[in-house]
Amino acid sequence: MNPTILQALGEILPAEALLRDSAASLPPGSGASVAVVAPTSLSQIAAVMERASREGWRVLPAGLCTWLGGGGAVEADVVVSTRNLRGLTAYEPADLTFTADAGIPWGTLREATRLNAQWLPLDPPGFREGSLGALVATGASGPLRQAYGTPRDHVLGVTMVSGDGRVLKWGGRVVKNVAGFDVTRLTVGSWGALGVVTSVSARLFPLPERDLTILVRAPSAEDLLGPARSMALSPLPFSAVELLEPVGAVSPHLEEGELKAALALRVAGSEAQVREAEARVFDESFLRNDVGAGSALRLRDSESVAFHDALSRWEEGVPLVLRLSALPSRLPSLLQEARELRTRIEASGGAGGWRQAAKGREVSVPHGPGPPAGEGSGYRIAVHVGMGVLRLGIRLPSEEGDALGKLAGDLRALRERLETAGGTLTLSQGPPALVRDVGVCGEVGTEAELVRGLRREFDPAGILQAGRFVV
Amino acid sequence: MGSEWVLTDPDRLLVYEADALTSRPFPPQAVVLPTSTDEVARVMGILHGNRIPVVPRGAGTGLSGGAVASRGGVVLGTARMTRILEMDPENRRALLQCGVPNSTLSSAAAPHGLYYAPDPSSQTACTIGGNVAENSGGPHCLKYGVTCRYITGLRVVLPHGEVVWLGGQGREAPTFDLVGLFVGSEGCFGIATEVEVALIPLPEGVRTLLAIFDSLEDAGRAVTAIISRGLLPAALEIVDRNTIKAVEASIFAAGYPTDAGAALVVEFDGMEAGLALEAAEATGCCREAGAREVRQAQSSGERLALWKGRKKAFGAMGRLAPDLLVQDATVPRTRLPEVLGRIDEIAQRYELQVANVFHAGDGNLHPNLVYDRRNPEESRRVEEASMEIMAACVAVGGTITGEHGVGSDKRKYMPLVFSPAELEALAGVRQVFDPQGTCNPGKVLPERPAREEPGGSTP
């Protein structure tokens, strides 16, 4: 670590807030000079940020440090983790709201709310290992977005320390609040580019009485796309409509012979609603013909929850994960794009296996029904059908020749095609060199000047997410 | 645009001197009524170049004095921007011009089995653009959420006339949620000329209950019991004794018993299966909390009748006095009984009549103060009582406006919820969009922050 910075941090923070051993958990290529601190109070975070802004130290806000660098190397002088701020500070079940410190682990929050038959219905990739603050900062969502939306729809207020050390509270813990401009919404999904989120208030929902996932299986995703679209557009109250191939990427025993793909229809609600939805799904023509007959499985309650928990770990250990998005009506072409990209990678000698990417990186071993990283058919597809989001997990091309450079070119061309049609391509995880080359996201459009202005307002010294966040 | 769409005749300007907060009129210098993004951009460019304040205005139904030229300048009305540009049921979305009335959108979506969920009380008149500016609510946002949740993309003319597109369905935006920030910005960040919205399926079934209670406390306990059972009604609305009396004495009489302490409207919607059970459970909660009577609508006509006392409450209050101040604040739901007691006490102390209508499920209350603005002494009491009511709401963790916005009326309460540093940051955010400070000046932020006003210096 940089001795000057370390000494200065030592003056601001108590000894237990300086994590001397944590450099080992940094992603490869991060350099030995990164200091990782976990302040034990809001005022300590404010003091660190104020000093950092004055000195020009580059800061990376973090939660539990399970996903430092977001798949890439950490390019910062100081990582400020909120893992020592983890209290559930206010929870009034009858209000269906809570306030908690940003570093509260997801599991702690889930357990506390479950005891009152309530939940925060969000399930983004990898969320089980992360903190509430990280969930808010990334604004990430998973299949439940179909019914419940994304963190922006649940967060009622945040406390943040701005890039220059100001403690600012936005919103509150009431469900309707239009006082002042909505900086809360701005903070959600801002990836720490405005400050360190230290506390979050959000709304909760009653935990559904029954939870059912109907799995309709078929040889390929294409076979199921029509039914998937019609279900996503039906008035049935699905909480998730996910198309998976191979379904074995979630749980190996669900794959049987030719039946590699599955449509997972999750419906959660009262006993009567779930029973009715189940009956109506099984009355659909696609389940009464040859394709559907005999292919459907019912996962009830704890099985349904376990299936979706496993689905949230779908990206673990996968060398390259891409998110293709478009209007849902364009899903057939997204699926075709995913197929073509896979063909090209295989053709360029897709020998680079699953394992390779995990090398030197801490990959948590999936517990439960998920497959061990490194196995499978070399690719996986998961589609949020109602949202027009297709995730493609795939192995890398071999390291011979310029296969990676060629892949970068393919990805840039794909991004351009998707953007022309009003969509996007995001690199969720992949080798740092490739991510740097292609960029996590596409260019920010005409709003770039506004984004720059907002960053200057909250982080005048430009120390947050320097060089990482687009614009 | 054609000179007929630039109004300067003082008689015609009268219409634009106030919104639904009528107590402080400010006639604009002119009104312009463009029809397209391009026209708006050119108008904004000209006004910006001449440092003339511009005030965006939809239908003028706002209750916080937000669409009023309180610093002079030009009102830019969106009344002619009423085209639905795309109705896209395949993707459950629509793209429309900002002047489309809220309920017109839902009517247009209905043939596709879809609707636009947020339903402010003024929905037959208020525009989508106005809803975006105010982040409007409505009685059904307990289950469905407010405007912000349904706005997915915006074409915005910035104060200096540049046009930007924010968000958009089908995109996972690579940057900040500027749509989320823009919604609720009360016309201070520019004008959203085109709005992309998410539509949702029309519910298959609806069950509406009306429960009559002897006291407001009993009604409050029923609400808590319903929520605690894990039920999620589409709406949970309460009207208090004074409101019931006003409604029943008016042409809007809805058949609520005039000796009741409170009436609670509970509505469930969604898939037909299960609705009957939910309604039965909610009925049980009401009876256990001491409801003397629970009625369930058996037809859509009966449903409208049950809602009538709630929906016509504001209109009926016109009988009580010449002026009505419709207040708006939110508190955590569990603090409602306590806050209602405080409001009652404050009103008595100032010798004012208060009638409460509220979205009990959201903790969003509307204490309405009736008065006569020609009586300056009474107006002053209304003013002081309002400040105390706001302070009481904030003291229990609430806020100064749940759905009506800050506008010009509530700027003075902003320091109750924001620190000087936060107000300064809000002014900074505004300045990013409007460095010159000519887009709806004199709104949202209190007088103090130096950076808010044109020519102000940055400390």
Keywords for this entry:
heterodimer, A: 471 residues, alpha+beta, Uridine Diphospho-n-acetylenolpyruvylglucosamine Reductase, domain 3, Alpha-Beta Plaits, 3 domains, 8-stranded antiparallel beta sheet, 5-stranded antiparallel beta sheet, 15 helices, 18 strands, 31% helix, B: 459 residues, Uridine Diphospho-n-acetylenolpyruvylglucosamine Reductase, domain 2, 5 domains, 19 strands
Question: What's the SSE blueprint?
Answer:
The complex is a heterodimer of chains A (471) and B (459).
Chain A: H1 3-12, E1 35-37, H2 42-55, E2 59-62, E3 78-81, E4 88-92, E5 97-101, H3 106-114, E6 118-119, H4 132-138, H5 145-148, E7 155-162, E8 167-171, H6 183-187, E9 195-203, E10 205-206, E11 210-218, H7 221-232, E12 238-245, E13 261-269, H8 271-282, H9 285-288, E14 297-300, H10 302-311, E15 320-325, H11 331-347, H12 354-358, E16 379-384, E17 389-394, H13 403-420, E18 424-429, H14 432-438, H15 448-458
Parallel strand pairs in A: 1-3, 2-3
Antiparallel strand pairs in A: 4-5, 5-9, 6-10, 7-8, 7-9, 11-13, 11-14, 12-13, 12-16, 15-17, 15-18, 16-17
Chain B: E1 6-7, H1 10-13, E2 30-32, H2 37-49, E3 54-57, E4 74-77, E5 84-88, E6 93-97, H3 102-109, E7 114-115, H4 128-134, H5 141-144, E8 151-157, E9 163-167, H6 178-182, E10 191-198, E11 200-201, E12 205-213, H7 216-228, E13 235-240, H8 241-248, E14 262-270, H9 275-288, E15 293-296, H10 300-311, H11 313-316, E16 323-326, E17 329-330, H12 336-349, E18 353-359, E19 364-371, H13 376-395, H14 414-417, H15 420-433
Parallel strand pairs in B: 2-4, 3-4
Antiparallel strand pairs in B: 1-2, 5-6, 6-10, 7-11, 8-9, 8-10, 12-14, 12-15, 13-14, 13-18, 16-19, 17-19, 18-19
Helix pairs in contact in B: 7-9, 12-13
